[in-house]
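Slide 14.
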Amino acid sequence: MNSLNINEIHNHLLKIAIEFNKICELHNIPYYMIGGTLLGAVRHKGFIPWDDDMDFGVPIDRYEELLGYLRNELSEPYRVCTYKTEKGCSTVFAKIDDFSTVIEDKCQDIPLKNQLGLNIDLFPLCYCRRNDVKNKYLQFLRGINSKIFTESTEGQYYKHLIKKVTRFFFPLSRKKLLDKIWNTTLNIRSGDCLANLFGVFGDREFIPSAWFGSGKLYDFESTTLKGPERFDEYLSQIYGDYMTLPPVEKRKTHASNVYLRRDIL
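Slide 15: predicted structure.
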């Protein structure tokens, strides 16, 4: 089987994003490009050349409403994926995947044919305060999930064995733990920051709500997508000197191999 190249991956992801944008526009759902997707829009007018995913944030008070629209209105081959509906989705936040493709995720203990396709991440953005006790509890639960249930292709064998033994004695299934994480997230609804509490940048993800504003359009490849109004403040807080390219050794993709699903059946 031939793995898709980065240009083919970008083409599939862009089509998902266009479909997502169409449904958000139809129902007046606010959303923002965040993280590397916004950085790509500002620095490259599209994808970061070596990036192979897309990140969007949706305010928590419209998040579940959006998921309902996506379930009913996404056209084939797209589908909304959550940990409640797809075995291949191991995150609390939802994704939209392209089911005509499949990502070979070696951390997933399920057959390749059941794994997700190329996808965009839909992060809930929570109105919160930086030191709220609910945030601390959420991060505590996320830490348990990471230590016990999240595998890595880079870890040593004994670490995987310890995780497996711990899971055997752990009182909660992963689904019940993810339910606790999601229910905690839903209860974080007040504060002057609009934060991605599932982001990888920790406290830097606590963004003043005013920086997001009502959103503005940015050129992204052959289309336009929405991002925060005050992109410079946002990107500076997340990345620092965001216009400087990272060293070559840090320009890494996330997925190992991506195939057309028809080629693996």
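Speaker note: The chain has a mean pLDDT of 90.
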